[in-house]
Specification:
The structure holds 2 protein chains of 2 kinds. Chain A has one domain (about 1-150). Helix content of chain A is about 55%, strand content about 15%. Chain A has helices at about 1-30, 40-55, 65-85, 135-150; strands at about 90, 95, 100, 105-110, 115-120, 125-130. By secondary structure, chain B is mainly α. Chain B has helices at about 5-20, 25-35, 40-50, 60-75, 75-85, 90-105, 110-125, 145-160, 175-205, 210-225, 225-240, 245-270, 290-300, 305-320, 325-330, 340-360, 375-385, 385-425, and strands at about 125, 135. The chains are: A alpha+beta, B mainly alpha. At the A-B interface, helix 2 and helix 3 of A face helix 3, helix 4 and helix 5 of B.
Amino acid sequence: MPIVLIVEKVMILAIYGYAIKMMVDFKKKDPVAKFEFDLLSRLEIAVVIGMALASLVSVINPKTYVFTAGLCLLTLLLAYFQSRRIILAGNRYVLLKGKTIALKNIKQLRTGMFTLKVALKDQEKELSIYVPLTSNRVLREQVEAKIKKK
Amino acid sequence: MAKGNMGDFVQDKIMPWIEKFINLKFVSCMQAGITACMNATMIGSIFMLLMTPPFPAGSTFGLAVAWSEFAAANASWLNLGYQIGLNAAGFYILIGMVAAVCKKDNLPIASNMVLSVFAFIVLQCSIMEGGGLNIGFWGAKGMMAALIVGFVVPEFNAWLLTHGFKIKLPESVPPFAAEPINQIFTNMIVATVIFAVKLGFAAFGTTLGDFINSIFAPLFSAADSLGAVLLYCVLVRILWFFGLHGNNIAGSVVNVVLTNNLVANAEAVMAGEQPTFIFNSAFQNWTTTGILAIVIATMIVAKSQQLKAISRIAIVPALFNIGEPLTFGLPLVLNFDILVPYLILFALNGAIPYLACEWGLMNIPYVSIPFTVPAIIKVFLMSMDWRAVVVYLVNMVASIAVIIPWLIRYDRRLLAQEKASSATN
């Protein structure tokens, strides 16, 4: 059981490391990219960071194995799905679902029920991001406006 | 007064005053200051939630036992997270306030931040017997002082610099060398004034934080009343009625009080006491629950195409407390047919949970939960009390009962219009 907890804690760190590396790599590719999020997105990120911190610092104690394991697992899942929902936009690229996509490759942006749908030129299937973590202002100015200009 | 004239009256006579107030430098920076502490208070809330299981002591329910043991085993870490997160809200507000003032006035942030933090610590902290710093005023008690210090210190510093409080250096000294020296000079003046203020309050046996809180205490207790809740609910809805974001506009005035009340509640719970402030920023979430009630009522009564369509579009956002599709789709904006029950409904949304708290029918909210969590889950998490869910359901039934007769009348009118329109086509 302790090994399960240790693995979960390491995986939480790995998820956040992956998310940070993803954003840093994106920033290197497009230095103009803004790391900006709306208030609701920031609050949601803060909640999961709070859970992650609590999971990481919690002691490995036989009496609390199950609860701690459950907390760590929940945090892991939330952190993973958050990392897939982050959208960042620069001048030439957009970060969507962990992938860096060139702006010129985006055909259309549209919104569904709590979903942002992105149509790409080089693939038929749309990319759907459920409840994206982003800044609506940056999306409008950096992405939508540029797509409409073309 | 004709319907069109009422809208023009609000737009021409009242809105300019509201906009002037919101655009006051202190008020607009205050909003940024309050927002700055939200992330930290969210993280602190998570630690506090984990530290205080929402079950009665001695409960043998499996989750309750596991949670209690987790809280006991991790008490020191969880308490640290709570202290740094939620219980230092005043400190984060100070940082947000200074950043907002410096951005607005184009002042150097780093030096003003250091000076303001120095001022805050000097004014708000004391040395305890045996060493150690008493940081009791970093939380709810220090929020008002943080706003004032965060505004006054950068402004005073900038005033000194622009009014010639400089050391006259020889012409040969380049500007980049003269600038830091002048900063040090004005910083010394500001520090002297800060110590003078500290000593001045100490001479009267008080501190800046205590003094400010004594001035605002009547405001806080007046704000925590049924009258204040009803006034807030009605005012927010009147603003929405005229197409304005009522929550943001009213929030710019009350959020500092409500956030202070929430943090004070959290501190009370952590000290093993009962929270006392009913109207706080978590309670605010109760005042928006009527949106879902209106959507459900619309789904029940709708026979016209317009109301059927709106109810289908608005239901999912309403489940997550987003009311814009309903507000502008029904519409609620400038719809005099529904104005009266609309105001009554949202006044009930404030009154029912307030009275439930006052009469001990449910716990007072003390946990900050993100706005978009579905209301039925959120009301439980805010007060960690299953009875809040019962109050919520009662609230929903009452709200639906209030709005249904008016919706039926409105729906009949729309149906008649649709029939007339299809007959002419």
